[in-house]
Amino acid sequence: MQTNFSPEQLADPHVAESETILRKCVHCGFCTATCPTYVVLGDELDSPRGRIYLIKDMLENGRAADTETVTHIDRCLSCLSCMTTCPSGVDYMHLVDHARVHIEKTYKRPFKDRLARSVIAATLPYPSRFRLALGAAGLARPLAGLLKRVPFLRTFGIMLDLAPAALPVSRAARPAVYAAKGTPRARVALLTGCAQPVLRPEINDATIRLLTGQGVEVVVSAGEGCCGALVHHMGREEQALQAARHNVDVWLKVAEEDGLDAIIVTASGCGTTIKDYGHMLRLDPTYAEKAARVSALAKDVTEYLATLDLPEREPRGLTVAYHSACSMQHGQRIAAAPKQLLKRAGFSVREPAEGHLCCGSAGTYNILQPEISAKLKARKVRNIEATRADVIATGNIGCITQIASGTEIPILHTVELLDWAYGGSKPVGL
Amino acid sequence: MPETIGFLKPRQAVLDRRREIVADLGDLLPEGCLISDERGLKPFETDAFIAYRRMPLAVVLPETTEQVATVLKYCSRYGIPIVPRGAGTSLSGGAIPQEDAIVVGLSKMARILDIDLFNRTATVQAGVTNLNISDAVSADGFFYAPDPSSQLACTIGGNIGMNSGGAHCLKYGVTTNNLLGVKMVLFDGTVIELGGKALDASGYDLLGLICGSEGQLGIVTEATVRLIAKAEGARPVLFGFATSESAGSCVADIIGSGIIPVAIEFMDKPAIEICEAFAHAGYPLDVEALLIVEVEGSEAEMDSMLAGIIGIARRHGVMTIKESQSALEAALIWKGRKSAFGATGRIADYICMDGTVPLSQLSHVLRRTGEIVAGYGLRVANVFHAGDGNMHPLILYNINDPDEAARAEEAGNDILKLCVEAGGCLTGEHGVGIEKRDLMLFQYSKADLDQQMGARAAFDPQWLLNPSKVFPLEGRPAA
């Protein structure tokens, strides 16, 4: 696509990168067809091609973000379905990242939106605060309906709705070195995450049990923090980069102590971001190289398990609908591995129709864009239920909470089913 | 880029009433169906023919046929031009607006209304994508045959407007051969229905006139199309050649021998490399030209047809023959081919030509195309529907370099003239749009064009519908 930037504008490395991305787009329109918001809303401004054009116009003119542009960029789920579809290889992810930072810097949101976003950014990435907030939410739940009727407090009402009725008794994996059973074959670090251990501590337990059982030593490092994805997608660049630098330090320390073969991530949303640390910190001379090392080490748990050649198990007579999280299939391009692992472990796997479409969870999207999110959830649940599966498996905590709120079919992390097949106990809720 | 193709001069009276028109449209349509903000209009200024751009006056996204009718009635009353838009994937600029026009986008009308497997028809709203129709009936063993490479995104309404083709049209025909009926809105808001579920309707075959009329005779809001039962099996086979000429003459001989495979697609070396990098389909990289020939039917039928084709290919010195071994491999072969234009974006900007030539001229036109483009100091990639002689040279250039852009456009014009001189025509399936409009006189006599414009005037006497397209601006009747 033709671009129009001055040499002065291109001196800014962020603008220069966006210009390179825009030049690859040939405006063919393929991306519109697989974009969840275009499919639901039918407006090109809510499609990747429309957003790319809005971003191009904003950046070329060096203009502060305006309400129209912000509305349509905010509606982007960052599911990256468009990147799987795009034949020209347009790096939409980094273009929209840049646009979000530009919006955060140049656009003043209404006070209620700023408040909601600040609360999210100060809570969700911190497990202790998040647990506290969910506890309080349990008490405040009766107020949800009331809050939602007050425009100013609507987002908080929605958050109350989304909070689970009861929290699991906290038994999140503690920082420690979990020894491999038998002869150690590898040593990995496990990102325990921020929201996940609060909502579903079983996932990390299952991961540790499964990996150690296969001869892999698992290190849960003291001091690791949120991967930064939540704030990154809100355009809070500095906060995201701080999170990234912090984790880079933590993991490289582990690596220096006793070597590290991989950093295992059990939430694909986090995995996508950690794999991008190298890019996020490319302009930071102290961290660029270190971050690239961490990104190269990061592996989704199923991606890593696929390299271990797990033994084949007898069929269990249980059908699993596999829901591929967007961050898994589009963000990390991991499509076949989780299904193959499940099949090998004795499960019969079914794939719901429209598997490329997002379930509407998308980080904080279900809080900030509840209407579109609800439409996508209903569509996703309809497609999953049509498979008549016994259980749903997926690899991302966001999808788990989103889909669980719309169906009676139990939903588990893929690794919980695998752990069960390879000697662990039957997953809770099955 | 210096523009060589002009648009109609905007009607000042319309521009002057902009504010009022926007307010009226807002009253006529539900919330969320009108875009009038300058920022929001910008992304609608072009389609997939990105060399040309014009901002529209407003964009409307109606949700029903009645709303389309309301808008058209309003526009005809005030003499406001209309530009229909499906998914905006036109390669000839068919959906590029103009400053005084209302874009009527059908993207919110994307519901499948009826699937009648007994009668093998599907009735859909115009904004349904081409592929969605096939997806909806695939589990039952059916498909909708015309398959433009943009079938993932392009809409059936746009397909009707351009009488779109595709790789598999060699056997099954193009849109007009698969369209059974339409509901359409005329320029003054009148809603008419043409055809139906039967193969032929009584009276004039107006459906044939509507198909390929580039949005100038009305706006189609619903279509009934023919569904076809899938063959028992299908197998794409790759044939690699040392020269484009030998591949080209092989195609002519296959068709000349009376064999009609489902598809014969051609790719030259640059196109093979581009598509392989995107799709990893296993295309041979050591050949100068590649044919993808797909046969279908029972195993025995496929084997017998393939044996004939292989015999002909050997006579033309085929270097490699590779049959797809699995459904996955077959899907990748087609994914690479169908993504060819977009994937070209990885290496350069491009203009895509659409001339069609008699098969006996294929080798000659391929060679001359290479010479013409080289003469302008540019590169070309060829990827096209060889079986029906529908060529798509992609002229590669840098759109940020005005001089290259001008040369690319000139090279394109020379190639299209070459196609006409070789006994072919300007457009096989992408439509005339804005791109080939001024070359129409090279193909048609004034009397030919006058007759076409007469038909047009019968539907749209005020020339309000997509008025800058198809017919050269000079020589039109006074509106």
TrEMBL record, chain A:
Cofactor binding mode and count: Binds 2 [4Fe-4S] clusters.
One Pfam assignment: CCG
Chain ranges of the 4Fe-4S ferredoxin-type domain: 16-45, 67-96
UniProt KW keywords: 4Fe-4S, Electron transport, Iron, Iron-sulfur, Metal-binding, Repeat, Transport
InterPro entries in the record: 4Fe4S_Fe-S-bd, 4Fe4S_Fe_S_CS, Cys_rich_dom, Glc_ox_4Fe-4S, Helical_ferredxn
EC number: 1.1.99.14
Statement: the UniProt record of this protein carries the keyword Repeat: yes
Catalysed reactions, semicolon-separated: (R)-lactate + A = pyruvate + AH2; glycolate + A = glyoxylate + AH2
Enzyme class at the top of the EC tree: oxidoreductase
SUPFAM superfamilies xref list: 4Fe-4S ferredoxins
GO molecular function: 4 iron, 4 sulfur cluster binding; glycolate dehydrogenase activity; metal ion binding
Purpose: Component of a complex that catalyzes the oxidation of glycolate to glyoxylate.
Record PANTHER family: GLYCOLATE OXIDASE IRON-SULFUR SUBUNIT
Stated name of the protein: Glycolate oxidase iron-sulfur subunit
High-level lineage: Bacteria, Pseudomonadati, Pseudomonadota, Alphaproteobacteria, Hyphomicrobiales
Gene (name only): glcF
TrEMBL record, chain B:
Gene Ontology MF, one: D-lactate dehydrogenase (cytochrome) activity
A Pfam family annotated for this UniProt entry: FAD_binding_4
Enzyme nomenclature, EC number: 1.1.2.4
Cofactor: FAD
Occurrences of domain FAD-binding PCMH-type (ranges): 52-230
Keywords per UniProt: FAD, Flavoprotein, Oxidoreductase
Taxonomic superkingdom: Bacteria
PANTHER family: GLYCOLATE OXIDASE SUBUNIT GLCD
Protein name: D-lactate dehydrogenase (Cytochrome)
